[in-house]
Amino acid sequence: MADEVVLLDFWPSPFGMRLRIALSEKGIEYEYRQENLRNKSSLLLQMNPVHKKIPVLIHHGKPICESLIAVQYIDEVWNHTNPFLPSDPYLKAQALFWSDYADKKIFDVGRKIWTSKGEEKEGAKKELIEALKLLEEELGDKTYFGGDNLGFVDVALVPFYTWFKGYETFGSFSIESECPKFIAWAKRCLQRESVAKSLPDQHKVYEFIVELRKKLGIE
Fold first, then answer.
1. What DSSP letter does each residue of 12-62 carry, written as one string?
2. Is the Cβ–Cβ distance between 52 and 63 less than 8 Å?
3. Given 3-state DSSP classes, what are the helix, strand and coil percentages for the chain, each rounded to the nearest 5?
4. C-alpha span between 177 and 143 (Å, rounded)
5. What is the CA radius of gyration of the chain?
6. Which helix (H) or strand (E) holds 64?
């Protein structure tokens, strides 16, 4: 394994999807290992003993944990093509800021939509739309957050789109009607082969959420 690139992942994870997109954009071949999160492999526990979570990128036998850190690692190691982060320090800082914002906001708020009821659910829906509208403002008239090319924020953010059908179904609302510019951006991203082949279908993720709700006793 010392000379290989290995990705420990779980298919519905938007955090793992980030690494799949990044490796594809860079044209890096790698071994994909699907983890069972109810029975974690000894390799996962060995490579990520602190958090014991996926995704983990293994390069030359060494682990890189936490998805945004791993995407930045991929960008720096394979810097010969398709840079994700700008060279300008300020623009780089802005890209890291918005990626961190998405990291802390979208998934947790989205989870509340399909796990909660009443006022908590309504509050989560409002918070998600507000966050997406803020991201729409940051996108502006650009093709991608990275400008004319897919950038760090795009790689960090577009995987969450795969969970939107679940959010909309259990939240009884339409994200596209509230944030059309954001959805148009996501669909542009999906026109890229690296994104299309790295993201599962929204219906498949929705079915996963349905099963997850059953396991959690949410009906």
1. T-HHHHHHHHHHHHTT---EEEE--TTS--HHHHHH-TTT--S-EEEETTE
2. no
3. 60, 10, 30
4. 20
5. 17
6. strand 62-65
**Separation of first and last alpha carbons in the chain:** 44
* Contact (CB, 8 A) for 82 and 170: no
List all residues 6 or more positions away from 53 whose beta carbon is below 8 Å from its beta carbon: 65
Q: Sign of dihedral through CA atoms 13, 15, 17, 19?
A: negative
Per-residue pLDDT reduced to its tens digit, 122-154: 999 999 999 999 999 999 999 999 999 999 999
Tokens read off for 214: 């059953």
Sign of CA dihedral 154, 155, 161, 167: negative
Contact by Cβ (8 Å): 113, 168: no
Tell me the two tokens of residue 150. Answer: 């897919």
Question: What is the model's pTM?
Answer: 0.96
Q: Are 175 and 133 in contact (CB under 8 A)?
A: no
Burial 58-73 (b: 16+ CB within 10 A, else e): bbeeebbbbbbebbbb
52-109 per-position pLDDT tens digit: 999 999 999 999 999 999 999 999 999 999 999 999 999 999 999 999 999 999 999 9
5/55 Cα distance (integer angstroms): 13
The set of residues, in sequence order, having a beta carbon less than 8 Å from that of 54 and lying 6+ positions away, is 8, 9, 10, 13, 15, 16, 35, 37, 44, 48
Q: Which amino acid is at 49?
A: P
